[in-house]
Amino acid sequence: MKAVILTKSDIEALIPHAGGMCLLEQVLSYTDEEIICRTQSHLDVGNPLKTDGKLSKMHLIEYGAQAIAVHGGLMALSMATVEPKLGYIATVKAVRWGVLNPLTDFLEVTATAIMADEMSKLYAFCVTDAELRNVCSGRVMVIHPDSD
Hints:
By secondary structure, this protein is α+β, with helices and mostly antiparallel strands. It has one domain (6-143): Thiol Ester Dehydrase, Chain A, CATH 3.10.129.10. It has helices at 8-12, 60-78, and strands at residues 6-7, 26-30, 34-39, 88-97, 107-116, 120-129, 134-143.
């Protein structure tokens, strides 16, 4: 098993999501280009994204987006003079769906930076289950409207 380097409380300090809306629970590793997170929030009966007790595969895009946000926060911290920037999802493209087993032990979320500048970031993300099967993957463009 991979070592946990950040916990949910650490993650909540990096992104604007808190409580149940902070979907990621662990950061297993990260570099300047990539982050790997893990969670069991899909098993939580109180998960705010669930409808009638079920999580839609569509919501897995939010898991990917939160991994991107955590990576952005970590990169801002690594450059002590830079404040984390608020970002918004601008586009989601090339989404591929696998089978979501709602009872899988955990979800692992990987986000890989493809391009980044002051105004936007483009990432590829992949959500896999405990058996390492691809459940959802795609590309997300995040914009930073308050960038100078």
